[in-house]
Amino acid sequence: MQPTTPEPYSAPSKAVWPTAAAPGQPRRLPEATEPADDRALAPANQPAEEVVPDPEPTYGSGLLDELRAQIARFVILPSEQALDAVTLWVAATHLQPAWQHAPRLAVVGPAKRCGKSRLLDVLTETVHEPMLTINTTPAAVFRSISDEPPTLLVDEADTIFGTPKMAEKNEEMRGLLNAGHQRNRFVTRVVGNDHTPHKFATFAMAALAGIGDLPDTIMDRSVVIRMRRRAEGESVKPFRSRRDTPALHDLRDRIAAWARPLLDEAADLEPEMPVEDRAADTWEPLVIVADLAAGPWPRLARAACARMVAAEVAAEEDHPSGARILADIRRVFVAQREADSLPTEELLHQLRLDPESPWAEWGRSGLSPRELGRILREFDIRPSNVRLADGTQRKGYTRNKFLDAWRRYCPTVHPVGADPTAS
Q1: Best exposed site among 1, 68, 340, 416 by fewest CB in 10 Å?
Q2: Are residues 278 and 370 in the same domain?
Q3: Quick one: where's region Disordered (predicted)?
Q4: Structural domain tally of the chain?
Q5: pTM higher than 0.90
Q6: Which of 16-30, 213-227, 228-242 has the weakest average pLDDT?
Q7: Which of 21-30, 221-230, 231-240 has the highest mean predicted lDDT (pLDDT)?
Q8: How many degrees, rounded to 5, is the angle at CA 122 between CA 120 and CA 128?
Q9: Given pLDDT bands bounded at 50, 70 and 90, which one contains residue 118?
Q10: Which residue range is the domain that position 336 belongs to?
């Protein structure tokens, strides 16, 4: 039986945060996870798992299909999973009063003409109450956020955070974007002639587009879309406001009409997630939208979540200032048969031997003992005197000092030479 189209939506006078989903409520841990690739074959010596059919699609499933097709008309996303994620993120903006966390959408690319601004054009016409923040002060932004928050859209974010000097100048905007990821995080400002302290809400979903990565604290709270330039043979339809906006607005209004009666249900749902911690907080609204829509969307949402989060974890490991140095040192200790300690010179020698690592070309003559010490101090790891097999002592690192950092930042051991991003 085909679901009926809902009546046109009439906005309530004030959105109410449901008690069952209030901040601080104990959260049920996931009992199971979806596989990253539901098309993977079972090992030959094991029977293939029974394929669970998709749930019966709702009217919302058809709306998501239509929105997905509309986005794909104007923008080429880097993957099918990225297209699914953007689709679900747009729909989630119409249920913001239901969410505990407001996921950011980080639309980043290595250069100009990757489609970042075009994607923001489409988002502007489909999200709930878009608020473009070009040259907008943080004070104006948080004074615009209410119980029914707008959707913040920031283009050319690299002009805000692109250099350390810019980032320092715009620290208040970064703080606003970080705080607004979670409900009930306020900023306090004095107002009026008597300078009365007043708390302003920060909770609002936001999409940011720019060249290069955004600050780590924002990327960590984002669904990350890494755009690329169109290849030869790839084509999209030009976006023309006069021609295309009415259809997008009609679709936006139908999505809102479907979604808003589901506010309480959305707020009460605690879906099984394929990821944990902040990644789960960020992706949960997208997965809930998918579960409400049913059809293929619950499966597609979890596949997109697992793959895209794994890709960002791998990218973080590859960043020298992140967990990459810890992962590479862990492989060195594994290759040395879990030695209790290694002299600094031997550790550096082994790190530089890896042709895929940045350590051989770090600085003028490769990673130095001083630079190694500087990087590891961020993880509270420092060199000490270590005793060698011949009884002599030299400066080096003991394995036990890395255990806590390994457990926190790179919990999976990979064989030496193996691809750490491989599943």
Answers
A1: 1
A2: no
A3: 1-59
A4: 2
A5: no
A6: 16-30
A7: 221-230
A8: 90
A9: very high
A10: 324-409
- Is the predicted pLDDT of residue 205 greater than 90, yes or no? yes
Residues 156, 304 share a domain: yes
Residue with tokens 């250099």: 163
337 falls within a domain: yes
| 166 and 200 within one domain | yes
Residue 131: CB atoms within 10 Å: 19
Regarding whether 353 and 230 lie in a shared domain, the answer is no
Question: Phi and psi for 3 in degrees, rounded to 5?
Answer: -65, 150
Q: 328, 354 in Cβ contact below 8 A?
A: yes
What tens digit of pLDDT does each residue of 223-235 get?
Answer: 999 998 888 788 8
Same domain, 118 and 265: yes
H or E stretch covering 105: strand 104-109
Q: Token digits for 328?
A: 């590479």
Q: What residue type is assigned to position 226 of the chain?
A: R
pLDDT average, residue stretch 42-58: 72
Q: Which two tokens stand for residue 404?
A: 């806590």
Tokens for 84, please give them. Answer: 């699914």
- Note whether 149 and 203 are within 8 A (CB): yes
Residues 238 and 109 in one domain: yes
